[in-house]
Amino acid sequence: TVPGDLAGRAVVITAGPTREPIDAVRFIANRSSGRMGFAIAAAAAAAGARVILVAGPTALATPPGVTRIDVETAVEMHAAALHHAADSDLFIAAAAVADYRVAAPADHKVRKADAPPALELVPNPDIVREVAAMADGPFTVGFAAETHDVIDHARDKLTAKDLDMIAANQVGAGLGFEVGENTLEVIWPTGRKTLGPMTKERLGEALLALIGERFHAAR
Ligand code: C5P
């Protein structure tokens, strides 16, 4: 096999935002477009991998050869991702998963009242952390979108979540979310590499190649 070759490998990718309902018509979400995760899925399928893409709500078309599972909430994404991660070779968590959900969303539309309502939030499961902790689990890659101290926060996350690799990018005013070009600082326990700046589509290919190299080096 050539270095980085992922032909025939089972790859599970999470992508996009999650939506956490407040009531029957309202939700909490974030600015993730899903473009980075979809680009990685496209690159993985083009490289001959068997790709399952667990996608939050996005406007993007499914890349050729990719099996897509649409989800809305973090809890739904967790169930689908864990189910498929169990027999995968690689898990790439590109989704911007909401850290919290509304404790008790109303099943009707909440009416405007005299006083502003308080929202009680409860933590969502950390999907990539649970996958990284699986016995005989897949090679696990996370993302860290940060507005400051990108490298330090990414290293902390690599260790805290026990990941094999993390791709960090700066977000905020004109960077990261909602834009086409990006730079990634990719970190693993024994090394580091900068990818970009380039389009998210080309970054998807470059990152997948690097993941493939590290995957084979780790096995
Ligand atoms: O802790 P933080 O949300 O910044 O970590 C980001 C990384 O963790 C991303 O890879 C994201 O997909 C993943 N994540 C997850 N489940 C969560 C929160 C984050 O898989 N509930």
From TrEMBL:
Cofactor(s) needed for function: Mg(2+); FMN
Residues annotated as binding CTP: D99, K109, P125, D126, I127, V128, F143, K157, K161
Cellular component aspect of the GO annotation: phosphopantothenoylcysteine decarboxylase complex
GO terms assigned for molecular function: FMN binding; metal ion binding; phosphopantothenate--cysteine ligase activity; phosphopantothenoylcysteine decarboxylase activity
Residues represented out of the complete protein: 177 to 395 of 395
Pathway assigned to this chain's UniProt record: Cofactor biosynthesis; coenzyme A biosynthesis; CoA from (R)-pantothenate: step 3/5; Cofactor biosynthesis; coenzyme A biosynthesis; CoA from (R)-pantothenate: step 2/5
EC identifiers of the protein: 4.1.1.36, 6.3.2.5
DNA/pantothenate metabolism flavoprotein C-terminal domain boundaries: 6-211
Keywords on record: Decarboxylase, Flavoprotein, FMN, Ligase, Lyase, Magnesium, Metal-binding, Multifunctional enzyme
Cofactor binding remark: Binds 1 FMN per subunit.
Record-given protein name: Coenzyme A biosynthesis bifunctional protein CoaBC
GO annotation, biological process: coenzyme A biosynthetic process; pantothenate catabolic process
Function (record text): Catalyzes two steps in the biosynthesis of coenzyme A. In the first step cysteine is conjugated to 4'-phosphopantothenate to form 4-phosphopantothenoylcysteine, in the latter compound is decarboxylated to form 4'-phosphopantotheine.
Reaction catalysed by this enzyme: (R)-4'-phosphopantothenate + L-cysteine + CTP = N-[(R)-4-phosphopantothenoyl]-L-cysteine + CMP + diphosphate + H(+); N-[(R)-4-phosphopantothenoyl]-L-cysteine + H(+) = (R)-4'-phosphopantetheine + CO2
UniProt keyword Lipid metabolism, yes or no: no
Assigned protein family: In the C-terminal section; belongs to the PPC synthetase family. In the N-terminal section; belongs to the HFCD (homo-oligomeric flavin containing Cys decarboxylase) superfamily.
Domain of life the protein comes from: Bacteria
Region (Phosphopantothenate--cysteine ligase): 11-219
